[in-house]
Amino acid sequence: SSWKLDKLTAKLPVPPGLPIIGNAMLFIGNTENILKNLENIASLAMRHEGAVKLWLGPKLYIAIGNAEDAQVVLENCLEKDSVYRFLRPWLGQGLFIAPLGLWKIHRRELLPVFHNKAVEEYLPIISEQADVLVKNLAEQSGKGEFDVLRYITACTLDIVFETSMGERMDVQHSPDTPYLRARHTVMTILNKRFFKVWLQPDLLFNLTPYAKQQKENIELTHKFTDDVVKNRRLQYETNQNKETNQQSGGRIKTVLEMLFGREVDFTDEQLREHIDSITIAGNDTTALVIAYTLILLGIHQDAQEKVFQEQQCIIQNSKRGATKEDLLCMNYLERVIKESMRLYTVVPIIARKVDKEIYLPHSKVTLPAGVGAVVGSFAIHRSVNEWGDNANEFDPDRFLPERSVDRHPAAFIPFSYGSRNCIGRYFGMIIIKSIISSIIRTYKIEANEVGPLKVEVLLFPIKGHQIKITKR
Ligand code: HEM
């Protein structure tokens, strides 16, 4: 039946491949090569109808580089592709990879927890950590280039841990803990598995030392979250009669606390899986967007000056954290952040399972059930068809309302699209805005370039996020 699948999708171009493994060669080699190959696939797609097909071993994938087909896939295919199965031992049925039936029920329960009003309660925690970040950065002020991502990641970890489970990790002061090391090890092994086809079959993976290492480190991270869930459940049950709404007693409720006593009676294991999924999906993504935006502001001094002037207008010379009202006024900064997410799409590819036949109106091809659909957000964000001839140039004002009216709704999808999009997108945006606001009011930034990129699930610059800062 691969013959039948091949025939059904005969209209689509296919890059040259090898027998048996098909196009899997495209994903072999270093991570920089993977990106080059992805770019070649994207340009092959552009020369045709914005889609190509790839055989990865026995499985057929359709790679999509146009907004119209991306919209159809992201609206209709809500089940994650089987490539995410490697996350299963770690994240179980957590929202990020939850199978469709369970996902529908749990997403509905989690939505109010990530509502604008609910996450705005976390602004004091965000500003407090942004303040620590600004102080930590002082050691780099007036010196040469340095990689800013490490500082930002420590800050977003502190924010995400405190808001999701009420744990004050203080990563910004003590970045090296057994839990964080274990977490990093698991991520490194998973990344290898995603991109190295020979590590994908369990049989082969289990022959490597990675298998044991992964198991031990997953157990360590599970134990950490299990303990938090157990303690918070106990506290919740003790206080149950006293507290009723989010801010009772003046204390802010964490994501975890908001999940107790809901319509769906989450088990402790389910809570652990959701909380782990949230801290994994929400941390590096947010940190990367901030780091790319700082480089872009360092390159484009005129944009930085405009961002600074806007801050002066809103918060004057104060060093206080940004309030909800302040954030709403940061329109230029918001356009800069969007342009940063467009050019450096930190989640560059999204893979979904096609569980029922669907027709792609742009490529004019019917995808049979059983194939995988890969949405190339990075490719769509840089496509001249969607963004015009200067698609590769930095121009925040392309996000002015009057210049956005004719754009396809799925031409800009940094948080994916449709009902399985990012549940934390508003939370992510307020963290990003608030942290950049604090940094830019204190430091002037310089940077040369982002340079060549690589894909390790997320998008990274090969030489790191190099910037120079000086106190204003
Ligand atoms: C700028 C920062 C962020 C970016 C670029 C981003 C991007 C994404 C994308 C592209 C997806 C969908 C993946 C797919 O369709 O397969 C997603 C899902 C998700 N994100 Fe985010 N995210 C960000 C911040 C956050 C934050 C702050 C949180 C929570 C604290 C979060 C939690 C999640 C969760 C739980 C999902 C799974 C949703 C579901 O399947 O229903 N993300 N994110």
Automatic annotation (TrEMBL):
It is a peripheral membrane protein. GO terms for cellular component: endoplasmic reticulum membrane. Keywords: Endoplasmic reticulum, Heme, Iron, Membrane, Metal-binding, Microsome, Monooxygenase, Oxidoreductase, Signal. Heme binds at residue 422. It comes from the Eukaryota. The keyword Endoplasmic reticulum applies. Belongs to the cytochrome P450 family. This is Cytochrome P450 4C1.
